[in-house]
Description:
Chain A is α/β, with parallel strands linked by helices. Chain A has helices spanning 17-29, 44-47, 56-61, 102-105, 115-118, 120-128, 146-160, 197-208, 255-258, 260-265, 315-325, 420-429, 473-492, 561-579, and strands at 3-4, 8-13, 33-36, 74-77, 85-86, 168-169, 172-173, 214-215, 225-226, 232-233, 269-272, 276-282, 289-295, 301-311, 350-355, 373-375, 394-398, 433-440, 449-457, 463-468, 497-498, 544-546.
Amino acid sequence: MPQTLKEVDVVVIGVGFAGSILAKELAAYGLKVVGLERGHSRHSVPDFQAPAIHDELKYSVRKGMMQDVTREAMTFRNQHREVALPMRQWEAFLPGTGLGGCGVHWNGQAWRYQVADFIYKSHVEERYGKKFLDPDLRIQDWGVTYQEMEPYYDRFEYLLGVCGKAGNLNGKVEQGGNPLEAPRSREYPNPPMKEQYAGALFRKAATDLGYHPFLQPSANMTRPYTNPEGLTLNPCAYCGFCERYGCEHFAKASPQTVILPVLMKNTNFELRTESQVLRINLDSSGKKATGVNYMDAQGREFEQPAGLVLLTAFALNDVRMLLLSGIGEPYDPVTEKGVVGRNYAYQTQSYVPAFLKEDIHLNSFMAAGASGTVIDDFSVDNFDHSALGFIGGCYVLCGSTNARPIEFHPTPPGTPRWGRQWKDAVRRHYNHTAIFNLSGSSSASRWNYLSLDPTYRDAWGLPLLRMTFDFPENDLRMSRYVTNKASEIARRMGATTVVDEPRTGPFTTTTYQSTHNTGGAIMGSDPATSVVNRYCQAWDVPNVFVVGACNYPQNSSYNPTGTLGALIYWTADALKSRYLKRPGPLA
Amino acid sequence: MSYSTARPAPTDPLQLGAQIVAQGTTNGAIACARCHGFDGQADGSGAFPKLAGQFPQYLAKQLRAYASGTRQNALMQPIAKGLKDAEIDSVAQYYASLHPSTLASRPVAAQLVARGKQLAKLGDLKLRVQACESCHGPNGQGEPPAVPYLAGQYSHYIDVQIQMFRQGIRTSQQMQDPAHSLREQDIAAVAAYFERASRNGAK
């Protein structure tokens, strides 16, 4: 029998960016909040100390900060008619675990989405007509607009100390920034990062071709910065160990550096780590959550009653928790009924390695997770698609996030995979290869979805999440077009060999692409096609709020964290100014 | 001073550096050796830093900072202004080429050194100070070219430098926040720890 604990006002499932910010806002509001974190507690000191934190084998190869796949994995299949099998190691994407979540080991690429992103379906239909879309696509509007999100983007960026140069201040184009960005109400809190040499070469070539290069927004600090919570971050050392690592310098914005110290001081908040939530409990009506059941590290089960449940456990885990708890009707792609698991999308990544002459020394190891030079000319709907026959796009980024010894050894096509010739090629190209990263949008489609696996279970006996996903044809056409454009820039840079490799299907879980898993618990204005309303409140159970990239009806070209941050503060505001004053459905 | 001009200046940077260290220049730079020693070990007082084996890029950068006034020091500014560009590089290369030796340290409380070691290796979560060695390398060996070694440096010198970062007399984006966050006794502690740390290759 689970032991029933004393009721609290709020229980938060997963203490990453979303969990820690929402908990902080509600604890400061005066509510008793319990944060349940599946993984360990960890802090900049002593857990992220150099040189131990720079252990590439432990963190990059063996995925030291990721969810333990021997206890809790996922199953995968490309097609609805196939039988899904469990992933035995993380490769394509890397769900994190532990206090701070993915906010610890992200690269710090802190983007905003475009105005068109939030009204995507309406926008595409208006610009290109209703018949333009491939019939299998299921894109939607978000139910919120960019204009509504802007103040919350601003708040998140100032919390993080995002470094960049505005390109559009209140509609006025600014020199030195991204002229194609959505308008922002004020300048970034900090100046942009130092440009890498590869980025400078890219800038010149891209400018020659008529594009608009700029330095990407970064949550790796460019100077000492004290955020509105009173926490000070230090400047980045460009060590090249951001993604998959914690930062020893207090230089990368993470829950540990920007919010947790303030949250932990509030006596209204209690953190319980190594607490695996098993389900959200509902009352007999099925319309009200009564709390959660979780198991601690000793295998003891507890029931934690709570008046409000916040589900902030990473996109994929959020969807699974809803399915395990029976909140919302599961999606069925055959009948297209149900909503939970619907519109799972990803990121359509491709890469263009530009092999340069031997006298060009890039020193790409001097890098931060977000120190690239970018063009936004081919992102989302920043270019005319009417003659192209697809929707969406990619930003094109040049500049490394690292040149670490185990993972970074670019060689041109035709090089053997091992042996003397491989070693010679690595020596020749290591310091002379610029890799373009194309981060592409991902269109929701009818047959891509998340559900519970009928066969495989986790260490607690619960069904694993099953992913059914392949790249929609639309996205492959998009990748072909933009990758080709990127190759032209690489040739203009003087590359002797350019590898033009657009994304091709089928999707495979065996090579890393992106941890930008989105959708499955999408937001919207119609309960028939969304799981949560525009305030991230579950349609069916109004005292459950779900905040994560699972809310995105489809994915944009950009990394999702900046938009997640805006949604977090948007939801916090809705909770404080509306829900807590009058609990019940908000929309 | 006049006799030094009678001979042609050496063209080899190490020789030119050695000559300036020993004799100074005719432009107003006095001999570096007067305070820092010909062997780069300084005079043992701790008022002047040990320079032997310090990274040449770091030393040259500091001399240029003195010359331009971005690093302030009444003694060093006129000396640095008396050095031409090539002379700065030569002096830096000369001192960088020397092997530091380990000197006897002042006796201090073991507790102080232990606290210094903790700050150096782990930092302090409550103070939000990162480990010194995150940048200054394992055991304070430094991270060339930008970050100086601290191992075996005089504790008094380290202490004074942190105080100067704290007061904003010496500026560094990296050092600004740690210098402010450390408490007085912590500054003495890290200085004592690093003075005792031995440099790789030290005799």
